[in-house]
Amino acid sequence: MNFFDYIKNESFFKPFTLKYRRIYYDCIQILIDKTKELPVLYESDAKDSITIYLKNLELQNEGKLSEEKDEGFEASEGVEEDSNKAGENGGDLQAASIISLFRDCGWLLPREIGRNGEYVVNVSIDCRRVLDHLRKMTEKSGEGMMSNRIFAMFDTMRSAFDEESGRTERPYTNILVPLVDNETELKNELTDLKENIATIMKVVIAFQDINSFGQFIMKDEMLDRFFSEYFFVKNNGLIPTQISFIRNKLRILRQGEMFEKMVAECAEKLQLPDEDARQRVERYFAELQYFLSVEYEDNMELIDSRINNYYNLANTRIILMASNGIRLESTINDFLNAVSRLPEEEQDIAMEQAGGCARLISQKYVGYKSFEKTKRLKNEGENISLMIAELSEEEKRAKTEELFLNAPNRYSVERVGNFLETQFGSERRIQLKERQIRTREEVIMYAAAMLYAKNAEFPYELELSEEMVNTDIADINDMVIRKK
Q1: N or C end of the chain: smaller count of CB under 10 Å?
Q2: Average confidence score pLDDT of the chain
Q3: Beta strands 475-483; 429-431: pairing state
Q4: 120 — phi, psi (to 5°)?
Q5: What is the pTM for the complete model shown?
Q6: Which residues of 130-149 are buried (b: 16+ CB within 10 A; e: fewer)?
Q7: Whose CA is closest to 217, among 200, 236, 231?
Q8: Using CA atoms, how far apart are residues 254 and 279, in angstroms rounded to an integer?
Q9: What's the pLDDT score for residue 217?
Q10: Res. 90 pLDDT band, cuts 50 70 90
Q11: In Å, what is the CA distance from 316 to each residue of 7, 12, 39, 319, 323?
């Protein structure tokens, strides 16, 4: 559904386009806060709150309202007619006219008489939700949001498998929807971080002196806030474990009885046919598994690369500003090439004159290691030679398995299996030539599947064909993949 079909009021955003839009925003926020404090907000109390705000605004910013009249844009006839109610054409702003404007645009519900015979002010649900979203967006601190999303997904999934958990009564609403919401917000956090890094790089390029650049590094809290949160997510040992836990439990939910319960609740809640509800739930599961298996790692690697580029750019910028824009390496190279072409006597004179232009001071510090006494271990006659021992076949096998477990493998059996599971969705078989391969990562995943096809633990079987599939990335044999 289109948003404007749902809101059913063409003037809903009109106060945001008028001259006094900042004042209207503050006034509606005051009314929303008052409705939270008072059980019933009468019109007299609402007018008093707005009047106090306007008087304080006039005292703090004397003449501000008259200045804003000259800065406003030319409104259309309909907007100008409605804005007359709020004193847009020269009159003073009044609480009654502002409340009337809010009722016309649908921010306030129509007049309703309360128990004491006085009109009641009720903020509409649509206005409350939109304004709450705008407040959260403007007051967003950005601290700890990425890790909090992962922790919330982990807590949701862990409680879903608790025997006494109430989430299993309505699994679609209490399990799947919160997971998708947190996954969407985590994507937004990663996107914000990438965009902020690009913004920082543009600011660094614009600096012309080292003083302003130093103040930017020391005072800009955005650097520490976003980078510290990223490094916490990247280096914290709990995060990979929790993501693996969520991914494994998703696979169990997708193949168990809870899946059918989610489909039934989705069909009932959204009033959808069973087939449409099943496709929606399948899409949510595929989106979650693909994000946790592939997209999350790709985003983290991209952010890591951009942060390294930022530090390299900052380092280069510091060197250029410290050298007053002169590339010392190039200048020294030109000087040495010119000296090498001079006669030997003139070379000595040139180097002596160049040495007189530079003043080098050698600074050395005495450390604790310089005067620390080395304590030698006394050999009390014991045999200190190394013992020769031969490993058994079981010990060799255990050491080998330990090395394989500790070595990172981006294309392990588990990762390839997770990738194929996201590609299958609700299908039982896929054919490679029917798929659109866009990235090098997908090509390597399919190639790794060929290698693992004969493994017993690999849950898929492959049927290779002599026909070649030509893509922009690589040429690969066509294949049919089925679940075992």
Answers
A1: N
A2: 78
A3: antiparallel
A4: -110, 140
A5: 0.50
A6: bbeeeeeeeeeeeeebbbeb
A7: 200
A8: 13
A9: 62
A10: very low
A11: 52, 50, 61, 5, 11
